Amino acid sequence: MADTAGRFGYYARQNLLGTRLKNFKWYEWAVLAALTAMLFGGAALSPWGKALLKFEAAPAWIQAVFSVVAILAGAGFVLWQHHLQMRRDAQIRIENRVEAFEPLCGLIGQALWQMSHIQDAVDGRIPVEEVLETDVIIDDVSSLLEAMDRVNVHELPTAYLCAYFIDVRRVLRRMEIQLRRAAADWRVDSIDPRWKLQLHAAQEAKRQVSNTLHIFHNAMTSISRGERPELPI
User: Fold this and answer.
1) Which domain range does residue 118 map to?
2) Is 175 domain-assigned?
3) Nearest CA to 209 among 160, 153, 168?
4) Global pTM?
């Protein structure tokens, strides 16, 4: 039992030493090499060091010591290169995730612009003709819906982002229907305010899309830092 415990302690110490060596930074290895050189240089210049050099076996011992130092330096360089490669790989993964997520934020940003434009027409901040006289805005909403329908929502980083994205599509689909009805009413009688009743959900749609865009922007910040997006409380 004592022998087993001793072997376990030995392997545990070896693993701990290996972990510490892997966590060394390049400048830590440089400092270690400099301190080692100073130690051996000081030892060689000391009286007992000079006496040691007079022995016949001294060159062999010196060669062995410097061989160990060279092995440690080589191992440190390899670990440093491995650390740099791991950092490069992690940065590439982050850049790929950001590149894949940015278009989704753009789609939701475009949806917010459309909902804001419709609400501006309802509130009288812009002429109604800009929204209802032609099918341009309606076609824009339809095109945006088609683009969002082509997105594989299951590839989004988290389930809550998937749910919010689907909600925006649902809001746009409902607004597309209301826009067509409002345009039909307005083109029959532009004085009759009934067309506004058809767009009764525009304000809530704008609020929902704005909230989703805020959440996606927060997610983008987390992804760019290499973190998992969390739902803001």
Assistant:
1) 97-224
2) yes
3) 168
4) 0.67
